[in-house]
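Minutes, structural biology subgroup

Action item carried over from last meeting: produce the structure token record for Phage integrase family protein (Nonomuraea pusilla). EB confirmed the sequence was re-checked against the source entry. Recorded below for completeness.
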Amino acid sequence: MEDVDHWLSSKTGVLGTRSLKLIHNILDRSVRNAMRRDVVKRNVVELCEVPAGRVGRPSKALTLDQAEAVLKAAETAARRMRAYIVISLLTGARTEELRDLGRNHVVAYDLTRNSWQAVTDAGWEHDQFAIYVWRSLRKSGDTKTVKSRRSPRIPVHCVTARKALLDERAKGESVGTFSESRVLGTRNETAVTAEKVRRDLRIALKAPKASTRRNGHRGSSGTASSRCSQLMTSRSSTSHGWSATRTPS
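Output recorded by EB:
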């Protein structure tokens, strides 16, 4: 027993508490199997307590104040960048997922049809909206698997940002700069590059190059969407609980 306690204590400097619990469980299971074969007579591992491991790295997610500041800064950003910031921050969608988000993957719940329809067909005069996060631009070329796909609803703030982007196009402002097939695409019908996203994000937030953390939006989505629901009236939620094989409900 003392040997097991000493061994677990020696790992506290390199492993976290969760990892210590895992190796404790593995050792406990191994001794139990040995008892079934009469190799050992007693399981002393179950008498040992798991010590606390080392502290993990600080979270990279934005704080509540930082998330509010980002949303406020997005209001004065270019329309496309505003939509990108708001949608990614409030839904938790990854950078590579939003860059290839098709216009037909933004859907609204049509009460007359009792089903989810693409806003390109159903329009924007509805109460509930969602996005189909089914594709991803990855360096390896792999797309998302069926199990990794999801269809989160989007809050009203995201809808407002998207409408503003469409209104700018309808009024003839910045003609030829938007994609016909992608929500945040380019005029050449290609996805916006990661480099351009980072550059536009730094401009929008007036942040130095080293401090721009585009993936921090994903980890901050829970905090931001919770606060957003308190600040604005919304009938939508940001749950990620739907599978790729069925529409949101």
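Discussion: The chain is about 40% helix and 5% strand.
Next step: EB to file the record with the rest of the batch.
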